Amino acid sequence: MPSRIGRRRPVTYLLGEPVDDYPAYAPESQRGHALRITEIGEPVLHTPARTVTEFSTPELARLIDDMFATMDVAEGVGLAAPQVGVDLRVFVYDLTDDRGDRHVGAVVNPQLEMDLEADPETEDEGCLSVPGAYVPLVRPGGATIRGVDQNGGPVQLEATGYLARCFIHEAQHLDGVLYWDHLTPEQQADALRQRDEQRADVLANRHEIALELEKTPPEYPKEPAGAK
Known about the structure:
The chain is built from 4 helices and 9 strands, in the order E-E-H-H-E-E-E-E-E-E-E-H-H. By secondary structure, the chain is an alpha+beta fold.
């Protein structure tokens, strides 16, 4: 029998804490409704979001549930509240890193600190608000998020690699900054070309996944609501 030395089981971290027996879809996703994802050019995406001042409310819990469901229907790994049309400082995430570990959570009023001393990393990056477009983008290799959970409890998350990229992407959404804003004019033109070519197929796929997950598919306009 081959040796098991050196093997490790992947770990699931819920807001940075290891948990056992976590479901394939977060409980929030199972409860939530799939919403339309706002698209580049819509004002809510390009305006800083408001600080959350009330915690442990049904409204905040419902928003987080719906964000998880919307993210899963769109096959995303992160989603910010402005992407469902809500100008509040909230983001959710559910991703598997390069080690096979899963990271899940919802962060309220996040403050981002990028580790500028970490080696920068260049990876293809996309955004659910620019459906179908992926462009190489340099990001810092590490980041720290400080904020609170939906009940107002403190949260501090350290991240490297793919997780750090996700945190940076989502936290910047809440300042009205998209990955798009870091691209050269040529890259922006390429992203819009990809979006125009892929959008219909991406939205059709979201429709099918919503049905598979027993969610009512959100309705999207034929042309992007914020078309540039």
